[in-house]
Phosphoenolpyruvate-protein phosphotransferase (Candidatus Cetobacterium colombiensis), 580 residues
Amino acid sequence: MRKFVKGIDASPGVAVGKVFLYKEEELFIDKSECSNVEVQKEKLIEGREKTKEQLLKIREKTARQLGEDKAAIFDGHITLLEDEDLFDEVIELIEDEKITAENALEQGISGYCDMLANLEDEYLRERAADLRDIAKRWLYNIVGIEIVDLSSLPANSIVVARDLTPSDTAQLDLKNVVAFITDIGGKTAHSSIMARSLEIPAVVGTGNITELVTNEAPIVVDALSGDVIINPTEEDVEKYSKKREKYLEEKELLKQLKDKTATSKDGVTVGAWANIGSPKDVAGVLRNGANGVGLYRTEFLFMANDRFPTEDEQFEAYKVVAESMKDENGKSYPVTIRTMDIGGDKSLPYMELPHEENPFLGWRALRICLDRPEILKTQFRALLRASAFGYIKIMLPMVISIEECRKSKALLEECKAELRAEGIKFDEDIQLGIMIETPATAFRAKWFAQEVDFFSIGTNDLTQYTLAVDRGNERISHLYDTYNPGVLAAIKAAIDGAHEGGISISMCGEFAGEARATALLFGMGLDAFSMSAISVAKVKKNIMAMDKASAEALVERVMSMSTTEEILAEIDKYNEELLG
Ligand code: PEP
Ligand code: MG
């Protein structure tokens, strides 16, 4: 039966395809006593063999697609799977306690992980996360639950899931996925951000779509409006196929602005930059006409590994981006690289983060890096070394205090001194900047401007921290509102403070790519807009149609208003008159 579902338009586009339901059955551990010890031992052994076969297949595919070095990760996993001490311990549990294979394996793994987690050796400590991953597969194989593989999908798949973590999104089979839809999540959740940089249409926060669809059912996704139609009629399919074509044509047209700069009618030029999550995204950045990278989220490099990436591995990634971000004359575009921003909704499989009630208010980002300075120093050294190959700027996330800036600067200076002593070249004038993501920095921007070289406003977090509204919670997504006068006041305070302190300020939160807000931000004096690459052309087009004086007058009117409703009406009126 045809069903209509409404969600949040998280990444633009239109798609017509078939449901790929990503729903893993819940694991049930049978805790009853059992006398058939031999049967249980057999189940344990068969489960292990099946797991090994699966890991070997994944290894082979990874080697084909990503190279031998990434595939080698799975050799380590197989070694852990075949660990004889663990195996003997589980067999003993089955024999002595007369329990099921899955119950014994779960207990054995849990004891083993606790033991690993308490070791001095960091490498061994981090193996606990690998072991849990392997154990999950092994347990599923024992009880006969199928493990879903997102990296190999049927053609024209629309993935429907309760939620997609950033690592699920990174795994998606890009050749065959045409869109995704989730029950939960908001526009600024990291899977939504990744969908935009991968240019995959996405609708999130539908509530319960996973309960309404069946696997392989025909489905239409209009991620321009957030509409989903399950079991569409022929007319629906025709209508949305046409809408898809029209959208793709417009996207192409906008790309013709590729070589234009973002200069207003009265000659004020701002940066039109893009955000990236990996060196692979640079091609899309240049294709869409961005003249800089305003945010490189390096945590994805950390998330794609089974251990911390080494200094050399990081150096290679940063160098590739610095070298490829150049104009046709070989002049380097700025590349702003953010230090690891882990925690919140981003975890590392190999780093045990403590369970926290409020991870977004917890041990994350710069807080982790300053508590574990070896992580930050390795990254600083890699960034400094790469700075010899282009125009790299270093940016710190989640800053709340001047002390954090000074501590980070001191560590950066230590790294510079080390490299000088080692005779390794780097950009001596490299800039160190901070993100403005907390009210603590926004409202004291002038003071922070004395400490660092530039700012970038992270509205995704600044909105959630100013309003105390979780950015990923769809139940309160209607409250997550960057046009709220309090948030606009924080943004304006940051821009004014930067300029009073004599430094430049960009914005790399998703608000920078919101075409409706271009005039307001331009009028406030933002120096550069950094956004998903697909938004660059639209924002450029807007800037080219406006003049600074009228945008400033708009800001003055808006800042005297007290509700979002009035503010949006005023902005829409301005946009309508100016941009049509
Ligand atoms: C932000 O908070 O606006 C930002 C750009 O950082 P992230 O989305 O990675 O938290
Ligand atoms: Mg942030």
About this structure: Residues 37-66 form the longest helix (30 residues).
